[in-house]
Amino acid sequence: MKIVITGGAGFLGRRLAKVLLEDSEIEQIVLTDVSQVRTPAHDDRLVLRQANLVDPGAAASVVDGADVVFHLAAIVSGQAEADFDMGMSVNMDATRSLLEAARATGHCPRFVFASSLAVFGPPLPAVVDEQTAVHPQSSYGAQKAIGELLVADYTRKAYVDGRALRLPTICVRPGAPNAAASSFVSGIIREPLHGEKAVCPVGRDHKLWLSSPAVVVENLIHAAWLRPDELGFERIINLPGITVTIAEMIASLERIAGKDVASRVVFGEDLSVQRIVCSWPSRFDVTRALRLGFSRDPDFDDLILDFISDEKAEKGLRRP
Q1: Tell me, which fold does domain 2-167+212-240+283-297 have in CATH?
Q2: Between 39 and 307, whose confidence is greater?
Q3: End-to-end Cα separation, the chain, in angstroms
Q4: What is the rounded distance in angstroms from the CA atom of residue 192 to the CA atom of residue 117?
Q5: Is 154 noted as a catalytic residue in this protein?
Q6: Angstrom distance (rounded) from CA 95 to CA 149
Q7: Active-site position among 70, 140, 159, 307
Q8: Would you say residue 319 has pLDDT above 70?
């Protein structure tokens, strides 16, 4: 079995590859990204490819022979809003190129598309369900919604066997802050744990729909292995998450790391971030996703503890 992961230089793509390498039936994993890809593990089955998927022939070269494609590559929300052309190129044109390349293989590969809760926007019901119409309030959200429709139509035509997953906001992300409007969500946990101040641009009562990196990876893989008859006609899935307020996040941080660490979170209004983030829903009915076997985190404390454990493992320390 050959697997392709776009966005392979990102933390999620690298983590996904490491977990997939535990499966002995996988013969090759191609990690591709527009930037240079570092190997996430020492394994002869890994192939690293630096490629821009909108370049002529690039997507076809990457997808050739693939049984499963995980399409994670994207320009994040804040950057897509600031640079409309880049967002359209990476988030829409590259998706279309990849789907066309998958179609050209002629064997209907499975295609797992990482979408986002940003496809939704006000007016919103108290709880978003499978029937809630998309109404994105950012270019990123619009581009993800277009990607969902493309995956659904290529699936209807039997060009790919698609699954579009609306990911919650992922927390706690490792590494440096990025241009995502939601970057602060991880920052208000990660930076204080590293001894740094973190600015929260929204109020204490703001609610978020969150999932840990580990559970998101688990759900990406689960989606790929689901049989078509289990999914049926509807291939767009709201992934499980947990609803947490900013105040609850800080309280968790204080419980786990102490009052001094939690006090490093300060508040500073940012209207541009608020306009995007506050348009996203914070509660979902995920009955269908749970019935299909997707997972969710038990509580926010676990998200912080997972991050601390992962950081220790990355530094070569023993997991607690």
Answers
A1: Rossmann fold (3.40.50)
A2: 307
A3: 34
A4: 26
A5: no
A6: 11
A7: 140
A8: no
Q: What is the pLDDT of residues 273-289, one digit of tens each?
A: 999 999 999 999 999 99
pLDDT surpasses 50 at 318: no
Helix 11-20 vs helix 213-225: crossing angle, to nearest 10? 60
The pLDDT value recorded for residue 254 is 98
Quick: pLDDT tens for 215-231: 999 999 999 999 999 99
pLDDT greater than 50 at residue 12: yes
The Cα–Cα gap between 181 and 189 comes to 16
Per-domain residue ranges of the chain: 2-167+212-240+283-297
